[in-house]
């Protein structure tokens, strides 16, 4: 009996062996395929994802597949990759690589696996000018030698007599380019996106950082950048009116040794992308400390023009001379630089208390009955005058504004949106965007609709619907401001934990011909933080 039981047990083990090979099963599930311009690349050792989710490949893929020169120095544990004048040096154990003599941060460096030298394929490929697209579902890495992923040719479908012809949808465009707006904001305040704090006073490093950022954005599919050139009553260009920004050197008023704006415009245009100069109009400072301000800063040069509110200094919109001073700084850029557009954000009146009773009494020549209506009239005058003066100098320069996403709640105005927002552009920031659109004072509007498709207080789709109706028949273009910064953020709700939220919003935008593109906030949240591989999701969406 015991012998019979032993034999049965042995037979069961033998029969189960095909189903208990975890190594083989894991290998099949984790197999990663590489393609270059649609052709499969051979790899003598299978590519794999390391602990940091970085795909590593053997040097043979770089030398044979990418046709790059490769050298391995055993004593220093350094790989040197060369191609087309570019030189990369990656050393085992180091968190940075040398790219044409400049140090660039690495997620993972050289590793030895199964006797082979392995390198991070995305880093190496991108530094050699290739575009990298990761398809997680198919475990496929696609490399492209072109600036853009080749379009998929749509097969011609024979006409069927019984099916009515459907008119082709209007293709949304950037003014003068024939391309849909795929824009991104680049924040300079607090050194958020560019330049980095560590580059203070280092012109070459700042230039390298900007071109690297541009290359990443272009590879994803963005075709326009909105760069903050006036973060806090200062400038990222040599100005006769305002001081140099401290984000360039660490000290406001200090010359960085080059013209950042001229450099950025040149590099942006080299890549066939548009450059929009983004101005914070009425915000003078980001805090209440004035000790470090340059003597030419408006807070010190014209203290009678500023108001302190919410622990910041604001230029008082109620003073005509103060408004004109902002217009003058914008015109300085319009006249001096080859920009594609002037862009304003939502810094008009702050939504908090603003002590301007004395200004209301002194500058209410029109006899407007309420402070709220007087404030809106001040902003209306500014918006109209700025647009008129920009177009008088350069008619082709695009002029647009990105207001808070809710104009008014329907509870306050029956023609407002079906939202319950705590503040609104009209009632709290005194931005009468409807009037700007109806009067044609702006070329485009880009409302910041920074909520999800399921946030009932201010639902994304309902707000897009509302803004579409506002621009319909006016000739004013509509771009949607989207919150890439919320994707994957720990303080956000579940619907923001996947980049698919942004993709679904883009798909919703497509349902309206009036929505002529989008602008995403902000650059480093996409290219550096890259939550949930948002970069790849956007690349597929923009280019497939």
What does this 3D model show about the protein?
- The strands form 5 sheets. Strands 14-15-16-19-20-21-22-23 form an 8-stranded parallel barrel, surrounded by 4 helices. Strands 5-6-7-8-9 form a 5-stranded antiparallel beta sheet, with helices on one face. Strands 2-1-13-12 form a 4-stranded mixed beta sheet.
- With 544 residues, the protein is of the alpha/beta class.
- It is built from 16 helices and 23 strands.
- It folds into 2 domains: 30-144, Copper Amine Oxidase, Chain A, domain 1; 181-543, Glycosidases (TIM Barrel, Alpha-Beta Barrel), CATH 3.20.20.
- Strand 7 (86-91) and strand 8 form a beta hairpin.
Features:
single chain, alpha/beta, Copper Amine Oxidase, Chain A, domain 1, TIM Barrel, 8-stranded parallel β-barrel, 5-stranded antiparallel beta sheet, 30% helix, globular
Query: CATH topology of the largest domain, what is it called?
Result: TIM Barrel
Question: What is the highest CATH level, the class of the largest domain?
Answer: Alpha Beta
Main beta-sheet strand count, sense and barrel state: 8 strands, parallel, barrel
Number of domains: 2
SSE layout and pairing:
Layout lengths: L1 H15 L5 H9 L2 E4 L2 E2 L7 E2 L5 E4 H7 L3 E5 L4 E6 L2 E6 L4 E4 L2 E4 L5 E3 L2 E5 H7 L3 E5 L4 E5 L36 E6 L16 H18 L3 E7 L29 H11 L3 E6 L18 H4 L4 E4 L2 E4 L4 H17 L4 E4 L12 H6 L8 H23 L4 E4 L23 H4 L4 H7 L4 E2 L14 H12 L5 E6 L17 H10 L5 E6 L2 H5 L6 H10 L1
Parallel strand pairs: 1-13, 14-15, 14-23, 15-16, 16-19, 19-20, 20-21, 21-22, 22-23
Antiparallel strand pairs: 1-2, 3-4, 4-11, 5-6, 6-7, 7-8, 8-9, 10-11, 12-13, 17-18
Helix pairs in contact: 5-6, 8-10
